[in-house]
TrEMBL record:
GO molecular function, one term: lyase activity
Protein name: Adenylosuccinate lyase
UniProt KW keywords: Lyase
Lineage start: Bacteria, Bacillati, Actinomycetota, Actinomycetes, Kitasatosporales
SUPFAM superfamilies from the UniProt entry: ARM repeat
Protein's organism: Streptomyces kunmingensis
InterPro entries (UniProt xref): ARM-like, ARM-type_fold, PBS_lyase_HEAT
Length: 190
């Protein structure tokens, strides 16, 4: 088990109170048992998260829907774990789902991890979604500075020339200026 997986598992262990049900889910190698937790009624959130995370890391696509729901959760640690598992899962629907979450203005408070996942995926949907999300974050007094900064950094990493206009605009915002200038420098010359 790598360090990130160990951290996720330990967080969930604490949340579960160290119940025997946690020990069973953490120890099982039976993917069908884990998948059953995702659809069984009255399962606690920690159990669904552990099952989805373990299935995602194992490359089992039955975890996809649960991981997408967790990617948009109000708890940043759950979002980060879901993003990690989705990146490993390699499901072709992931980029489209992450783009939908990143650009949903009703859930923008939870868009940080979808934005970071889009950057990591480097999918065709990545740059357009980050451009749209960043453009909205450039409105005066927008409170989602971390999301805006993640978009700027992501666009710099993607080095997509379509981002030039929005990054130029971002470079005029004091809190984004340095990152936007660095991102602009990474774009190919026109």
């Amino acid at each position: 088990m790598d360090e990130e997986s160990r951290t996720v598992t330990e967080r969930i262990r604490k949340e579960s109170g160290g119940t025997p049900a946690f020990d069973q889910l953490a120890a099982t190698r039976d993917r069908d048992e884990l998948a059953g937790v995702l659809t069984a009624p009255q399962q606690p959130l920690w159990a669904r998260e552990l099952a989805a995370y373990r299935l995602g890391i194992a490359g089992d696509h039955r975890a996809f829907e649960s991981l997408v729901l967790l990617l948009n959760h109000r708890d940043p640690e759950r979002c980060a774990a879901a993003a990690q598992a989705l990146a490993v899962l390699g499901d072709p629907r992931t980029a489209r789902a992450a783009a939908a979450l990143a650009t949903n203005e009703l859930r923008v408070a939870y868009a940080l991890h979808p934005v970071r996942l889009l950057t990591q995926l480097r999918a065709p949907e990545s740059a357009p979604a980050l451009i749209t999300t960043l453009r909205r974050r450039l409105a005066p007094h927008d409170p989602y500075r971390k999301v805006a900064l993640a978009c700027v950094e992501g666009l710099g990493s993607l080095a997509d020339p379509r981002a030039r206009d929005v990054l130029t605009e971002a470079s005029t915002h004091p809190r984004l200026a340095m990152a936007a200038s660095a991102a602009l420098a990474r774009l190919p010359m026109e």
